[in-house]
Amino acid sequence: LKHSPFVPITVLNNLSWSDVAKISVNAPVLHGLTADVGLNRHYPRGADYAHLLGYVGPVSDFDLKKRDDNDPLLKIPRFQIGKTGVEAKLERALRGNAGTKRIEVNAKGRVIRELSRQESSPGQSVQMTIDTGLQNFALARLGKKSASAVVMRVDNGDLLSMASSPSFDTNLFVEGISTNDYAALRDNEFRPLADKSVQGIYPPGSTFKMVIALAALDEGLIKPNEKIRCDGHIELADRKFHCWKRLGHEEITLTEALEQSCDVFFYDLALRVGIEKITQMAKRLGIGIKHNLPLSGVARGLSPTKNWKLKTQGESWVLGDTLNVGIGQGYVLASPLQLAVMAARIASGKVVEPRIIKRVNGIEQKIPNHLKLDIDPKSHYAWTGGAQKIMDKGRVSKYNKKFSNLRTKK
Q: Which tens digits make up the pLDDT trace of 347-397?
């Protein structure tokens, strides 16, 4: 891209104070050459916040081509802008506005006097909802595994932790990452550059059984105490769909099926409900929709329908597809963030939306008045009542105690 002749050119950067002093002393004879002090971003907790904060880097010609922003700051050599994460999504607000001054120069370019000046204004100060201690702990527990963990408040949607492992040091990118360092990150089989918490979509597995249960209850297709027999498999079109427990769970209720994660129970429910109703419930609970967060590459996930398969796969939906979705397999895909939203909506009974920005310039951001879920209160109570029974048996408290011990050891 062509630049105005008045835009300075960087001859050398990262000078020592000795070099700066030499240039300053000889400034009268070094026409057009000046030493200036700039600021660089430094991320003290780079790896902890790599995928959330993102990082800044020098403005490239590619950046200028894809932006409608004519801010003269972007033309300053090696000026840095947000490249990923919150740094990129809130770039304009974080950058502030440049100041200007009009000067008079002589034929040799030497400044004679200043004619006018307009002071710059700083960018906004943004505080996130993330708990730094919890974020660090989550990443420490994930270790070097390819994994993600999301912790979210069920009452207001505040995201307290969004960990994606393995992570990386964002400071490597600020001045321009070396070829070797970038290759090591790019070629890592565990994909450290990807934010698995919002970009990664995976089969949700048995966590999706909560969607099936609530859909069946809401449609009145099962009663809380109704029993379904599990003989270890269900037959459909001369094919057996097995339960994880080969000998089966015998006759069990919905609460017991959730507690023991019985596959046959939810195969049966999925057939009763049907894929269209399952998908409707999934979207009401936050799966298959894109949540509005200032992060890079937030995935929509997938709650499939008959039309979706016909358009994308060129094939008709079959009952076997519904059985697979019944246990969170097959075509259904969700991100860790979406599963956290699902849990929060079920627990609160409200359409809780995730948020990651807590304050701007010290002003608390308004938490929206979350609407109630469009679900029959009796159905919701029946479901949450069953979940409470599971917790009362000590299963959840046992893991809470283990988690508490881990934090104490840290």
A: 999 999 999 999 999 999 988 888 888 877 667 666 666 556 555 555 544
**Where does the pLDDT of residue 5 fall: very low under 50, low under 70, confident under 90, or very high at 90 and above?**
low
H helix or E strand, kind and range, residue 87 = helix 85-89
Report the distance separating Cα 149 and Cα 135, nearest Å: 9
H/E stretch holding 172 reads helix 171-174
Q: Which of 334, 203, 338, 332 is nearest to 270 (CA)?
A: 332
DSSP string across 229-259: EE-SEEEETTEEEE-SSTT--EEE-HHHHHH
Within 8 A by CB and 6+ apart from 123, the residues are 93, 94, 95, 96
CA-based nearest residue to 51, from 142, 124, 123, 125 = 142
The whole-model pTM stands at: 0.84
Task: Tell me what the pLDDT averaged over the chain comes to.
Answer: 87
- CA distances 375 to 191, 214, 327, 334, 345, Å, are 39, 9, 21, 21, 11
**Rg of the chain over CA atoms, in angstroms?**
28
For the chain, what's the residue count? 410
Please identify every residue annotated as catalytic: 206
CA distance 47 to 140: 11
